[in-house]
Design brief:
Strand 4 and strand 5 form a beta hairpin. The protein is about 35% helix and about 25% strand. The chain has 13 helices and 18 strands. The longest helix is centred in the C-terminal third of the chain and has 20 residues. It has 2 domains: about 300 residues, Aminopeptidase, CATH 3.40.630; about 150 residues, Glucose Oxidase, domain 1 (3-Layer(bba) Sandwich). The strands form 3 sheets. The protein has an 8-stranded mixed sheet with strand order 3-12-14-13-15-18-16-17, with helices on both faces. It starts with a helix and ends with a helix.
């Protein structure tokens, strides 16, 4: 029993950091075989929550990033500006070891693009090319369109797909708190649709935008060619236009489209993760990461994805320093680069810090928008430890009741910290209340006015308190 309690307390130490100003332990909360002295941390959590929800510093940071710099596609001048902005601001706030860690990334450029329906009537279709797509010839690709719902319908068409453009019209179900966004169910056609269609001889792919609600707004996002021998262009249409084409096909109409895309890669260029720290008072060699990704698509401002997470991490470190809450372990902010279309930032971090990952005791990331907190995911390669950690995190959430009834989702983290989780580092992802997240995701509408400061501050408080 003694060894079991020691192991459990060690896992708990991964998840909560005793602060220098915390009171002495008082009665404990029973979780499984382990004793968690939650009251040890209650005062610090209350101070963090009060500070986070009573000022607008994080929102001011978001306005600077979104309005002052704008969208931040990997390899762009805007992302370079954002890296310099983050470094300068965190140095100004007095953090330790502020700097960058360079990684090489592929520069993808959208260029001009258009989609025109030619038959049964001529009309421009609202579109966005998919990230990492190849382009079309200068004159474009003109071909008949076949509309399918899923892989089975595509396979059933066999060789009749050759020389045609495939449109995947797969609707995204509405978000529910029980089942979430259904993102994985729908996004597979955006990610893998071009390869699926190319394997059957298609010349291009169109996909219904990944959203359950649309006001004629197209959504971009990356595609993945994998080992495809033939790479074909991919673009997203609005939900409305995808539905229209589906109706036309069901009525026996011939569909013909001209697709023009100047999309291209322009080689490898340098980018960087941004790093800053609050050094630990007892075990500075042990690291807890709090993070968001600095890059964003080249439309809108990337306010929910992921300027919100960036400023949560930045202001989290700032609040701990302002309140004099120096933890036992080192808190390291990491603002990842290239999450959207390559993951080079996270993969580069894992490679650079390979010999030191054993000292990374947790990695937290906010990458689900600036809404109110809904859940934390926890992913650990050792599933027995993951179960213990999930139970203990549920107990921790009782301290965060002032900002929401936050659930725990075992087996989930977030994209960047997921790269560390593969190497055994406990990965933790913040999930916000996502009813409207995919209204704005990867669109021109992803602007700072869509983020409610009070909701975002609640999520920032939860993220920082857990850290």
């Amino acid at each position: 029993m003694k060894s079991a309690r020691y192991a459990l307390s060690l896992v708990f130490a991964i998840l909560t950091l005793g602060c220098a100003t915390a009171p002495q332990p008082t009665p404990a909360t029973q979780v499984g075989a382990g004793l968690i002295e939650l009251s040890t941390y209650q005062k610090s959590v209350a101070r963090i929550t009060q500070e986070m929800t009573s000022n607008q510093r994080a929102y001011a940071k978001m306005v600077e990033l979104c309005d002052g710099i704008g969208h931040r596609l990997t390899g762009s001048k805007n992302l370079e500006k954002a890296v310099k902005w983050a470094v300068a601001l965190m140095k100004k706030e007095g953090h330790e070891n502020v700097g960058t860690e360079e990684v090489m990334v592929r520069r993808w450029v959208r260029g001009n693009e258009s989609t025109t329906l030619l038959l049964p009537r001529e009309v421009p279709l609202i579109m966005l090319g998919l990230g990492n797509s190849v382009g079309t010839p200068p004159e474009g690709i003109e071909a008949d369109v076949v509309v399918v719902t899923d892989e089975e319908e595509l396979k059933a068409l066999g060789d009749t797909v050759k020389g045609k453009i495939v449109l995947f019209n797969n609707p995204m179900p509405p978000w529910t708190q029980e089942k979430g966004s259904h993102y994985g169910h729908t996004v597979r056609f955006r990610v893998h649709g071009p390869k699926m269609a190319a394997d059957q001889g298609a010349v291009a792919v169109l996909v219904r935008s990944v959203t359950a609600h649309s006001l004629a707004t197209p959504h971009t996002g990356t595609l993945y060619y994998g080992d495809a021998k033939n790479k074909i262009p991919g673009a997203a249409l609005t939900a409305e236009d995808a539905e229209m084409l589906g109706r036309m096909q069901s009525q026996g109409e011939r569909l013909r489209v001209r697709l023009k895309m100047e999309a291209r890669f322009e080689g490898e260029v340098p980018s960087a993760n941004v790093i800053a720290e609050l050094r630990g008072r007892e075990k500075p060699e042990e690291i807890v990461i709090i993070s968001g990704h600095l890059d964003a698509w080249d439309v809108g401002q990337g306010a929910h994805d992921d300027a919100s997470g960036v400023v949560m991490a930045m202001e989290g470190l700032n609040v701990l320093r302002k309140l004099g809450l120096r933890p036992r372990r080192t808190i390291r902010v990491v603002l990842w680069t290239n999450e959207e279309n390559g993951m080079r930032g996270a993969k580069g971090y894992v490679k650079r810090h390979a010999d030191n990952l054993k000292h990374h005791v947790a990695a937290l990331e906010a990458d689900s928008g600036g809404f109110a907190p809904d859940a934390f995911g926890i992913s650990i390669t050792d599933k027995a430890k993951e179960k213990v950690a999930a139970d203990q995190m549920r107990a921790i959430m009782t301290m965060l009741a002032p900002v929401g009834n936050i659930r725990i989702k075992p087996g989930r983290s977030a994209a960047d910290v997921g790269q560390l989780a593969k190497k055994g580092v406990p990965g933790i992802g913040l999930y916000t209340y996502g009813a409207k997240y995919f209204d704005y995701h990867h669109t021109h509408a992803g602007t700072v006015d869509k983020v409610a400061p009070s909701a975002r501050s609640g999520s920032a408080a939860a993220l920082t308190a857990l850290t």
